[in-house]
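Action item from last week, closing it out:
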Amino acid sequence: MKKSLQTCIVCGRGADKRTWNNLAVLVCRNCGLTWRESFDLSEDYYVKLNEGRANLDTQKVAIRLRNSEDRFNTIRRFLPRAGICDIGCGDGSFLSILRDYGYLKCWGIEPSEYYHKMTIDRNLDVIKGEIDEILNISKRKEVHAITLFHVIEHLDDPIGSLEIMAESLRKGGILIIETPDKDASIQKATDHKNELIYPEHLFYWNEKSLCRVLQEKGFKILKISRRSFDWKHSPIKTSLMRLGMVKSLSKGNTSLDIKSQTDKDVVVIKDKGKNFFRELLRILLAYLVRILGRDDYLLVVARRI
């Protein structure tokens, strides 16, 4: 890993030191881009990630697929019918959704041995490697779109990676990036003390910094939106925090339960009527968060010009 920087990689301005979730970070005084003060991950960190871990259980697989289908529906109108490369594809959930909807010639790149094996089991076309593999792919195949979901925050050289993607896409090609939004309402509610702030995230982007760097690297912004992981199943408390109606978590608790609602999120009430209205309230709050744009992630669609 490269050493952390003292000036912003987007605008070149200075930064102020802060502490987020017990991590030392630097916050750009101009564009707001934030990065860890120390990039202390080993070079092979992501290759060995989850080494020895048991396979995902059926419920987690189903939730990831459900989340990927929601993401697909959000960006569907921008996707070409063929030639999509999902960089950092993880277990291949998004590629599986593309296949289910009849998209052709879709590939993935994944550095983790653990996740790469899962994509093989799913019979997906995934190369085990780093981002620069897209250059080799683009020489052999027509790449019309690149998706980068929750990857750019992990990169120690995001500018160089964006340049590689720009080189791999022809004029008119689509680049779609999803990353945690450092300015999201959930970050303000928790004072940046939550499960989206952790050592593997080297950079924390906002709309201003991400759009600026994309434009400088030869992309035109087509759409900016927000979403959250499996947002339709968000717990009531999480939605209230996103709406600013709950200011913080209980003392000592940094878990947002933002990834998905599970059995522990549902209070068992004997009165079925109360259960019904509680579930109705949960759904209404989740949709209100979506309508007001208070979700956790920044989703940007851009075209190569």
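Closing note: The longest strand covers residues 219-227.
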